[in-house]
Amino acid sequence: MGKVRRNKSYRVHQPAAQAKKPDADAEGSDAGEPETPEAHLSRGQRKRQKRRDAFLKKMGMVQRTVAEKEKAAKKTTDGMFGDLEELQKSLFSAEVAPVEAEVAPKTVSKMTGKQKKRMAMQELGHLKAVQTHPAFQSNPFAAIQMHLQNTVVRENEAKK
């Protein structure tokens, strides 16, 4: 006995939609409106249209994000009032420039892991010293208040 083979089965498509025959009443209402263009497209054309629409949607998002990035870059270079040049000129005149020159620019440096670890060890040492101090053990709030009066208030007076 030989191998049993199956008969090929072909895909069965849905029957085509029945075309509407215009009635006398319906002619008056639909006469001015054209039918939708998708109704006349083949399956392949619909697929291509869908891909094209998806691509255009994606490109629209890309263009939007590029425009937002450009706007953000312009805002960082020109400042908040970069678009309002006249207002910027009136607000940021030459009188403000010397004040900015007096303030020294702060250097922002990030701490390395080793530096963070060293600082944490120092802070733990300070914490243990504070907790073992007799004034802190007897009245913690009074000790903290005294510390703030001795350090923070003096620093503020020295700055003035």
TrEMBL record:
Q: What is its main location?
A: nucleus
Q: Where in the cell is it found?
A: Nucleus, Nucleolus
**UniProt region (Disordered), positions on chain:** 1-54
Q: Where is the composition biased (Acidic residues)?
A: 25-36
Entry-linked InterPro entries: Slx9-like
Pfam families in UniProt: SLX9
Q: Where is the composition biased (Basic residues)?
A: 1-11
Q: Which domain of life is it from?
A: Eukaryota
Q: Which GO terms describe its cellular component?
A: 90S preribosome; nucleolus; preribosome, small subunit precursor
- Report the sequence similarity comment from the record: Belongs to the SLX9 family.
Output this protein's name: Ribosome biogenesis protein SLX9
